Amino acid sequence: MDDESKVANEGQLIANARDNPSAFVRLYRRHYDAVFRYCVHRLFDRHMAEDITGEVFLKVVENLRHFKGDEKQFRSWLYRIATNAVNDHLRKTDRRGVLLKGACRQIDSQVADCQSSAEPSTERLALLREAVLSLKPRYQTIITLRFFENLKLTEIADLLGSSDGTIRSQLARALAKLRKKLKI
Amino acid sequence: MDDNGKQFEYFVRGINFDDNPDYNHRDKLEKDILAVLAKQTQQQETWRIIMKSPITKLAAAAVIIIAVALSIIFLNKSATPAYGITDLPELFEQARVMHIQGWQYFAGHRMPNGEKIQPVEIDNWIDLENGRSRYTGTGLSIDKDGVRVTIGETILAGQYEMYLNHNERDVTFFKISDYQRMLNMHYKLNLMGSQIFGDIEQLENFTRVGEETIDGIEYDIWEGEVVHSVTKYTWRYKYWLLPSTGVLGRLQAWTKVDNEQWELDYEYYRIDRDVDVPEWVFAMDVPEGYALKNTKETATPLELGGGGGCGYGDEQCVLSLKTRISFTMSDGSVILGWCSLDSKSQTPQEEFFEGLEFGGPLPELPVEIYGLRPGGITSDITYVGYHLACTQKAGKLTEWSVYVPDGRVPASVKQFGYDVLYRFNLGEHTPKWRIGYTVDHGILIETTKEFDKWVLGAMAELSDDGKAPEHVTYQNVLKLSNQLHEALSK
Q1: How far off is chain B from A126, nearest CA to CA, in Å?
Q2: Which fold has domain B85-292?
């Protein structure tokens, strides 16, 4: 299937999914991985990421009839819902501290498990988690979208409703903070 | 991509992170979604039926009009606040500079003539980025002459701590290490956190009770009570919160006094985050009229040893017992650094530490902390002590021990710490009296990183070579305390 017909199919699928449960399930299966990965990259916790992924798709169920965009906008819309859900989760429950601790605990056990095999990657992951989770939610979002989801600056700007310039300077600030924390 | 981006990308690329979805979860969620979709379809069907009939259509329209009218009446204004009270801890957690200014009122205390005690102005700063703080501490000393307010102010910056005794009007300088500065900042941060929030966990029970305009700015007023988990002592906090920014315009803490009346204990009229710090705050200038007890050049090096202690002396011995520092591990076990001396004894300190093993019996120092008990409450739990390591600095030896509980640890230790159980190892000689003392809960250690930073940091601090013993690691200590805990439970 060429790209154009794939896009056309996706557009059709979104339209059908508004009032056809089996179309919705196809749409859901197509995007589940991306949403889960985004959430786990933001939260560094698989269980929380699964919970938030659930929340995201239930929001999609609730609001799909009001969504009027194309397939590209649908992807952005999904990221936006996921971003809001993750940020809400972090903000509402003062989870950042808990997450940091959770991330460290997870990592500590991994570090302990891996100590004998001298796996430096695990320690680096622990550092990365702690550094990213210490950033403001906005910076966390930008870092995740840029480096884990490989989105371009313009795509991030569209998604977050900002200009390219704003995103560029926020990304630079976030990176400077990360490099300082990670000592790289 | 710029250099920062490339470096970060390179760092990320070297990490293996399992981000693969679990398809069991996907399938389970799919079922939930289908259930929601089915319900939604059913509701749509019902709606279609209602809208088909002119009578039910009219009734439905009437219900909607009434619902809208009621929501306009009862929902005060249309906008929902952007920041609520539970958002505040995160905002403060992100702050690099914090400042609180206000008054300490000493609720529940009176002068002998019944008059209220003169309030003390508080102006506290924490600059996390640069490891600096300025903090006022107040106390009440009650004696035959009446009630006396004691006021001390500590300014911490660089390698010095300046202590201003506002009662005696004198100034003392101390020299501090990086570790002590870090520890001090940690305690100050916790202190400021508890002064602002009481207990973060209980903020969820707070409610928005009204609005008030201060200096032309309209704040939401949030109010709630914080109950101490053990003493059940109640505080009432009142916050003036600007919903659009999360700025706190005012804070009051009330406490219930003897006659069951609420009395204002302290109030902050400035609570700032990330403001510019005026130069005077950390300048360490000696106020006019204050006597210098020493100078920076002659500053006394501050020793790690805030953990309490006791002493005893008679014609045969002069004993001292000092706890350097305490930590509580995530499994409830406690790590203490402590030392004991009999300055009349001829036995070299080193002899007490010969042949000790990790996880073995403690050294039989003149006064030996053999165990702990939960402080402040009656409990059957005993913490049994085992040797971890020994460090030496400037001829002084510090014993590092782990104390493992023989049962379920009560939550109250967080507030009340631990009562120290000690015995005298003086042969036939028995001291005529003893005094009890308590060590605090100390920093909670839940990760390798925290262990390395705080526990190993303290050990390094009390070693001549600035290094902690290599055999002491988070995993080793946890493993040991688990084994000992199991053995004790049997």
Answers
A1: 10
A2: outer membrane lipoprotein receptor (LolB), chain A (2.50.20)
